[in-house]
Amino acid sequence: MRKPNTNAYMALVIVSIFWGTTYLAASIGVRHVHGLVLAGIRQTIAGTLLTGFFLLKGYKLPEKVVLSRLFVIGMIMLCGSNGLLTMAMRYIPSGLGAIIAATVPIWITLFSYFLVQKTKFSVQLIIGMALGFIGVGGIFYDYLSSLMNPDFRFGIILAVIGSILWALGSVLTAKWALSINVLYGAGFQMVFSGIMML
Fold it and tell me: What is the average pLDDT value for the chain, to the nearest integer?
């Protein structure tokens, strides 16, 4: 009899808590400051702490080519995606924002097919993607009447574009396969995007 993988379940619980509360925290924060400012403060602080940690450990600054690609990925994933999704929380419920963001794996699959061309569309993959869209559509059904509100529509557009940009950045990250510690690289992305948003 197989033993349950406790670490996997714990990881799922932790990700679920942080994933959900991110949108809740953003929806509270945007009542007081602009979404880009809120996201910019968050990314700048986190990026400074992360890169500072690695620099204190003796890591050297990455080469210009690596830094330039980290900048591009940071602009797409954090400035574009995180910034827009944070802005969207001013106009739509945080739960709906999280549901829209859950379409990211579908967008990643599409971008992987067109940009990396290693993904092959099988019947199971197409069915899975269709079910994903249907699931999001089913949840969104209760909000159809709210689409008459221009602010709500604007929030939906921001959230969808943000989700698409996160997927694009994820695929580019995998395609470029930068020779840098993942967390160190993420720190630079956060610093770049945070400063740009501020």
Answer: 87
